[in-house]
Amino acid sequence: xxxxxxxxxxxxxxxxxxxxxxxxxxxxxxxxxxxxxxxxxxxxxxxxxxxxxxxxxxxxxxxxxxxxxxxxxxxxxxxxxxxxxxxxxxxxxxxxxxxxxxxxxxxxxxxxxxxxxxxxxxxxxxxxxxxxxxxxxxxxxxxxxxxxxxxxxxxxxxxxxxxxxxxxxxxxxxxxxxxxxxxxxxxxxxxxxxxxxxxxxxxxxxxxxxxxxxxxxxxxxxxxxxxxxxxxxxxxxxxxxxxxxxxxxxxxxxxxxxxxxxxxxxxxxxxxxxxxxxxxxxxxxxxxxxxxxxxxxxxxxxxxx
Length: 305
Known about the structure:
The protein is an alpha+beta fold. It has 2 domains: 2-53 and 170-302, no CATH class; 58-164, Alpha-Beta Plaits. 70% of the residues lie in helices and 8% in strands. The chain has helices at residues 2-17, 19-55, 80-91, 107-118, 122-126, 146-154, 166-208, 210-218, 223-264, 273-302; strands at 58-63, 99-105, 135-140, 159-164. Helix 7 (166-208) packs antiparallel against helix 9 (223-264).
């Protein structure tokens, strides 16, 4: 017990003696793991948005109109019989096994939706119902089956084209995933800075206490008794920084995503503060492991016992 008390006392004394360097380690660890936490939150948000959007992913079957190109609609505008055949495909035909639900959108409804989405723009004011396509909106059982549904309706008489939101969503999620990678690269650079700073701090601490270390060797102190306080010093400083990063992660998830963005962007499910608790243990563990490893390597290299 006396050995443990001595090691703790030496660690606290060293932390007080090297306050400036310890504060530097805490701040750099806070910033680096803050980036790691932000990247983890971004990926969690992307995953949640992916699941949410895929659950609402619609396939649009656009029907031929008077304005359709001859190449796409050689038989002219869709007839009542063709429209009924498409409805039969959706209810009891080949497409029914892939479709969870469907709705018909008339040209007038398409115009109203278009004008509502565009507001008071000049283009919306000049568009008429005849300019808008009639369509069937399909919600799929499995969104990944959209290529099969597209193929089923592509050659059906009365159908001008089949479109889905997959390509747009892929572009959005590609951008978000790219931002996550950029944040992770910045975090990796900052973590490297943290490791180097921890090593430098331990080296300076070992150098300033070289006389005490020599005396301890002469009186027969074990290697672990001499080395452990230096290692604990680095771990304590890094863990303190990781706790600040955990707090920042919670603030971002709770207030930026869970409250502010959810009020600004309606229709998207955002993560909240509770989700950040999944990330926090990893940040603390990462800080402890990196600081412990770098401190151990530095002590073995520069502290001869």
